[in-house]
Amino acid sequence: xxxxxxxxxxxxxxxxxxxxxxxxxxxxxxxxxxxxxxxxxxxxxxxxxxxxxxxxxxxxxxxxxxxxxxxxxxxxxxxxxxxxxxxxxxxxxxxxxxxxxxxxxxxxxxxxxxxxxxxxxxxxxxxxxxxxxxxxxxxxxxxxxxxxxxxxxxxxxxxxxx
Length: 162
What we know:
Elements: H1 3-17, E1 19-25, E2 31-37, E3 40-41, E4 47-52, H2 56-63, E5 66-73, E6 78-89, H3 92-98, E7 116-123, E8 126-130, H4 135-148, E9 156-160
Antiparallel strand pairs: 1-2, 1-5, 3-4, 4-7, 5-6, 6-7, 6-8, 8-9
């Protein structure tokens, strides 16, 4: 796949799932994971998230910029995971561009909320798994594999250079 096609597939996989688990490392080296809703995936593959500037993840990102993101949609049999470099931004123009009224659930004061900030992740190479099968087709193919003794074909699996 050409670079442009890889970036397109990367963006499509993220936009299809939208919510990921963002994993950071605490000061004592422990891994911490939390769900994060993707606000935007840029043309270059970088990803934006809204966050509380005073949260533990911001402290962890400011200390160590390495994060790991994992997107999963078991219902669609779509999975994507990758490391990245995260930074915290207080860019008001970017916040205005990305703002969505549903964000008021986390930031009741809207863009005037004093704790609002952005996380920007520049991804490393990604790995994905994708199957277009429904749960019924998946179950049938697993059963078929067990009966025939042939290994189950999991669908498409690959790496994306982002």
